[in-house]
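Protein in question quoted in full.
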Amino acid sequence: MGPGFRYHVATIVAIFLALGVGMVIGSSHLQEALVERLRIQLRELNERFTNEIQPLRKDNEEKSKALGILAARVTRNALKDIRVALVVTGDYGDAAQQAADAMRKAGAALESTTVIPPSFPMRLDVGLPALLPALKGALEDPQVDGRSLVFRRLASLIAFGGAPQIRKRFEEANLIEPNGSYGSKVNAVVLIGGARDVAERRWQTVDYPLIDQLLALGATVIGAEPSDAAQTYIPAYQAKGISTVDNVETEIGRTCLVLLVRGERGSYGMKKTARDGLLPLGTVAE
């Protein structure tokens, strides 16, 4: 009599058990091999970090310190007796603060810092009818364009100082966030632009008309932004013929800004818009 049904079932079960045990044993060996391989890779990465990355980091730190020392020497007293107005038209207030600190260290007197909020265009639309009577002078042309008059008064306030009531009107209309004296004529006006939104085009409604009025008043205007600005304002500034810095958050960028305020001209920085290189070739700093 041949083997019965139970025998065949037992045989099949034994075969599958053997296969299962073999897979477990094989996978454990594979896991051990994989773990060992990962250990080797981690050890190699650690050795590379120790032998390559750490020295590079130390070298970069030393270069950064040296650059800071060199920048301080180049810009020392470069802006002595020079008065500057800072205007923040973009979204990078931290870059504006860094620029202000650099100019102060170079000896500049920061007369004012004017922050123009992103809501400026909308607020101007709403508040223009109420604002115009306070801004029009007795000899003002009654046919003058209202927006042009607003920017003319704002440019005059920034570049030459102005009556406290004019500043108050702009502040009450929530068109500016002023800080400083606004009491004296300045030698240069520095705009800090750049937007975090790549679709932003605020320079068309704020920077352009303000620059036009500042230049019409004979003011020296410089445009700057950080290198990581999502939407750059530099091409817009260049279109108006003003000098620019596209990496003002860096030591080199701040040094360049000081030299531009001192009298150099051109477009400098790290981006494609830096038509004249990283820094002015000659320094006028004393």
Q: What stands out?
A: Residues 5-75 form the longest helix (71 residues). The chain has a mean pLDDT of 84.
